[in-house]
Amino acid sequence: xxxAMLLLAxxxxxxxxxxxxxxxxxxxxPQTEVTEVRIVISQDSLNEMLLDENLYSNHEYPATFIFNxxxxxxxxxxxxxxxxxxxxxxxxxxxxxxxxxxFSAVAAW
Length: 109
Hints:
Strand content: 25-35%
Low-confidence stretches: 1-17
Helix content: 10-25%
Number of helices: 2
Radius of gyration: 20 Å
Structural class: alpha+beta
Shape: globular
Mean pLDDT: 79
Largest sheet: 5 strands, antiparallel
């Protein structure tokens, strides 16, 4: 019985490898368009985050996350936003981290 369950689990895992999961409204990242993600953060928070003395800080600033693809739009308020990476923090093109668990994020739906 244990072997049959293991084989069933392995079969389901292999079957799922070729399929991309779909959300009820269609694909979240469609092949025919560029999905839009916007981050809205206060200018004061952004200025503070980009100060030389704060480049390696992991302090997360409150921001708003806006997602738009194929007319599907969602907004999540009060997400955490910070710089990320090691050497990229000093480069011209920054990398950022968005955290939905830092604050009490609230979806607008």
